[in-house]
Amino acid sequence: HISNLPSTLCRSCEEFTPSAPCLRSEPVPAAHQPHTHTKMPASGFAVGPNKGHVVTKLQKARTARTTTKRMKTVREVVKAAMGLAPYEKRILEVIKTGGGNVEKRAYKMAKQRLGTNKRAKAKREELKNMYAAQRAKAAKATGEKAAAE
Prior knowledge:
- This protein is mainly alpha-helical.
- It has four helices and two strands, in the order E-E-H-H-H-H.
- Strands 1-2 form a two-stranded antiparallel sheet.
- Helix 3 packs across helix 4 (117-148).
- The longest helix has 32 residues, at 117-148.
């Protein structure tokens, strides 16, 4: 047989043959006409021409979608109604207390919970912006209170 082609077991002649048509040296009976090797669907049986475990092939994952205005609004409403998740509260506490290398500690906590570098960095920035907005709102409220007196 030709050695540079990938070889498979021919089911009808029980020999390893290249993926091209089966080539036998002796005269070819009608049952052994040249054929290509096509994979039959598995039957679930351990023996027989279609032996093998029945499996479903994995579907290709769909590409990531962009968030629509509607989904953005829904997420904002849910976030406003439910508040922060416990891990988000802990990260926000780390940001509030300050100390040495706050960004790194906040990142590491987020990374452990979320799994990827990109998500962790995005979550850290989201919580930092939230804390900055809270501080700005508090400063504005105290400024107005001082002006009123």
